[in-house]
Amino acid sequence: MIKLLLLFTLVPIIEIWLLIEIGGIIGSLPTILLIALTGFIGVFLAKYQGLAVIYRMQMDLEAGIVPSEQLFDGAGILVGGAFLLTPGLLTDIIGFSLLLPFTRIFYKASARKYLNRHMEKGNFHVWWNS
Predict the structure, then answer these.
(1) What is the structure's pLDDT at 126?
(2) 127 in a structural domain
(3) Residues 42, 91 contacting (CB under 8 angstroms)
(4) Integer Cα distance of 22 and 16 in angstroms
(5) pTM beyond 0.70
(6) Cα-based distances in Å from 102 to 40, 76, 85
(7) 49 within 8 A of 99, measured Cβ to Cβ
C-alpha cells in the first residue's frame, strides 16, 4: 500500500517538475506541442504493435501453441498505451519503452521473474468468480 501511495504522489510531482523545467527551457507552447505529439505518436504505435501481437497470437493458436509471449507483449502494450495517455514526459518515456519491442524485452523478463518468484513462494492466488 505504501508503494502505491508513493507512486501516486511522487510520479505526478516529478511530472509537474519536469514540465515546468522543460517549459522554462523551450517555452510553454513547444512543451504542450511536445506532449501532444508524443500522445499522437503513441496512439499510432500502440495500434500498430497491438495489431501485430494479435496477428502473432492468431498464428500461434492456429499452430496449437500457447501464445504466452504475446500475452506478455499485449500486457506491455496496454500498459504502455495507458502511460502515453497520461500527460507528462516521464510517463511518455516509460510508455514508449513498453511499446517498442526491443525495450519491452526487459519488462517481460522482469515480469516473468516476479511471477515465477511469487508462484514458487505460493503467494500467487487465482480467484474464480462464476
Answers:
(1) 67
(2) no
(3) no
(4) 10
(5) yes
(6) 21, 12, 21
(7) yes
